[in-house]
Design goal:
Helix content is about 5%, strand content about 50%. With about 300 residues, it is mainly β. It has one domain (about 25-295): TolB, C-terminal domain (Neuraminidase, 6 Propeller), CATH 2.120.10.30. The strands form 6 sheets. The chain has a 5-stranded mixed β-sheet with strand order 18-22-21-20-19, with no helix packed on it. The chain starts with a helix and ends with a strand.
Length: about 300
């Protein structure tokens, strides 16, 4: 059968679109079903970087691959070491991670945690800052408009700030409503955090001198359960609800917000990362990273 040039071009475009759609809806097993991927991030070259909450490893997955390779090995840090937050900083070619190590012979278990910075290409260590306290939980972070790194400590209810180029962070905010603080991100220059224990979303107000004030409770039009990883894109917040197995988008309007469920039925989703027309998710309970199309 003869096909015109126009028809051939149309077929090629359709095939390309179909392949792109297939690639955008994918599942990648991270090592095995027990790897407990907690957080993930995307490097500028499209490499997917995923941490493990059950092992001392950080993995990477190259574009087009479905195989996770070990990237960082922290097994020398002590028994039970694992990773939470993951974030790439393209401007400094740094992978930021939260590393947690149990304190031996403590009941209930206490943890010493550290902010770690690694070279984005080689995995070579660059920065280490140990969070102050006998029992801490470095959980997640976001880069602010000031290029500083903002870090949540779930166990102590604190947010720390690491200025650009610095090697030690400073206390940014400590407040009783932040006991259980987890996800953190900036939306249109404003800092938002969630609380994984009390199922809350807060805006952090800042005065003219740059000093943060009392967190403002954002009323959501439907409940979220176990809000965990949170990122911003296209004027919305995207959050993984580890308590309900859902991925949701949140549109904030002043002190109120509307919630739309994008996907449910997941096994403990904990991390989320927008990347172009794709939302990447960690499904901790299944040992997988998966993607869904970014909603229009």
């Amino acid at each position: 059968m003869f096909l015109s040039t126009t028809r051939i071009l149309a077929v090629c475009i359709a095939l390309t679109a179909s392949m792109t759609q297939a690639q955008s809806i994918s599942e990648i097993l991270i090592a095995d079903a027990k790897s407990q991927p907690e957080s993930l991030t995307i490097a500028p070259d499209g490499v997917l970087i995923v941490g493990s909450a059950s092992s001392p490893f950080v993995y990477k997955v190259h574009p087009g691959s479905s195989t996770a390779e070990k990237f960082i090995d922290a097994s020398a840090e002590g028994p039970g070491t694992f990773f939470f937050g993951m974030l790439t900083d393209a401007s400094t070619h740094t992978l930021w991670t939260c590393q947690l190590t149990p304190v031996p012979n403590t009941t209930p278990t206490q943890r010493h945690t550290a902010l770690r910075g690694f070279d984005l290409s080689t995995g070579a260590p660059k920065v280490r800052w140990n969070l102050p306290g006998e029992n801490t939980t470095c959980n997640d972070f976001a880069i602010g408009p000031d290029k500083a790194l903002y870090i949540t400590d779930t166990a102590t209810g604190r947010i720390y700030r690491l200025p650009a180029g610095a090697s030690a962070a400073e206390l940014y905010l400590e407040h009783r409503t932040l006991q259980g603080v987890d996800g953190i991100t900036f939306l249109d220059g404003t800092l938002y955090v969630n609380n994984v224990v009390f199922n809350k979303l807060y805006r952090i107000p800042v005065d003219s001198s740059g000093k943060p004030g009392t967190p403002v409770d954002i009323w959501m039009d439907q409940p979220v359960h176990g809000p965990d990883g949170m990122r911003a894109a296209n004027g919305k917040l995207y959050v993984a609800e580890n308590g309900s197995g859902k991925i949701s988008s949140i549109t904030v309007n002043g002190d109120k917000a509307s919630v739309i469920v994008l996907k449910d039925g997941l096994k403990t989703p904990t991390g989320i990362e927008p990347a172009g027309d794709t939302l990447w998710i960690t499904e901790r309970g299944a040992g997988k990273a998966l993607s869904i199309p970014m909603p229009k």
